[in-house]
Amino acid sequence: MGNRNTLAVKKLQDFSEWLISKGWTIEPTHGYYEVLRARKPDRTRPLIVYKRLSNRNGSELTHLTVDEREMRFVMEFLKECADNG
After folding, report:
1. In angstroms, rounded to a whole number, what is the distance separating the alpha carbons of residues 73 and 81?
2. What is the tens place of the pLDDT at every residue in 21-62?
């Protein structure tokens, strides 16, 4: 299942840079809905961030979708942002 309410669209570039600083490699995305694909040598599957077309009420998208198995990285990133900001 995906988490659709934690990683803000405006934080995507910062999250990508944070992943690189932690040893992740950014890969080309596959398909229309992927906005970020990152891989770390010690992991078998990539971390993928997806976009949706719109919210349920049709308004502009404010958050991205991340698999629940990868949310620990998003939470670590957000905690570091809060600590530094």
Report:
1. 12
2. 999 999 999 999 999 999 999 999 999 999 987 666 777 788
Predicted model pTM? 0.91
d(CA 27, CA 34): 11
CATH class of residue range 2-84:
alpha beta
Cα angle 11, 16, 21 (rounded to 5 degrees) comes to 125
Domain ranges of the chain: 2-84
Termini Cα distance of the chain: 30
Percent of the chain as helix, strand, coil, to the nearest 5: 35, 25, 40
